[in-house]
Amino acid sequence: MSFRYSFQQIVDLKNNERTQAEWILSEAMGQLRNEESSLNGLVEQKENLHKEMIQATSHSVTISNMLMMQSYMNHVDNQIARKHQDVKQAKHIVSEKQEHLSVKMIDEKVWTKAREKAQNKFQIMIAKKEQDALDEMATNRFRRASY
Q: Which residue ranges does UniProt annotate as crossing the membrane (predicted)?
């Protein structure tokens, strides 16, 4: 007689939901890394542009050229500001996905614990039946020996 848990499909479903939540979190973390990498690229681009502007001031440069560089610097600053918002949003999504994963992990643990309790009950019942059978055999043997 083997143990069959009547809610095994639910346990399996909860396990699959947890796995899926892990994948979703992994995707969100990948997106966050991409956003941070993009932000770092923009900051680096700004630093390079700043160095270019410093070098340009030491040489003779036309005002229109300097205005163009300043305009581009403002554009990069705007992109950096937007990218900071993107990173903030990506961090928010990651925290939501982490919370979702923790809920799924707790849910799975509840069902797994219920399965373990049912299996322990089953094993205790089987052990009791075996002990009862052994007791019955011992009683019958004792009765035969006493006649």
A: none
Say which residues have a Cβ less than 8 Å from residue 33's Cβ, sequence separation at least 6.
Answer: none
Contacts of 66 (CB under 8 A, 6+ apart): 53, 56, 57
| Structure token digits, residue 97 | 């996905």
In terms of phi and psi (left: phi > 0; alpha: psi -120 to 50; beta: otherwise), the region of 63 is alpha
Convert the pLDDT of each residue in 90-146 to its tens digit: 999 999 999 999 999 999 999 999 999 999 999 999 999 999 999 999 898 888 887
Please choose, from the candidates 115, 106, 103, the residue with its C-alpha nearest in 3D space to the C-alpha of residue 8: 115
- CA angle (40, 46, 48) in 5-degree steps: 105
Q: What are phi and psi of 60, to 5 degrees?
A: -80, 120
CA 121 to chain CA centroid, Å, is 33
**Best CA proximity match to 38, nearest among 95, 98, 90:** 90
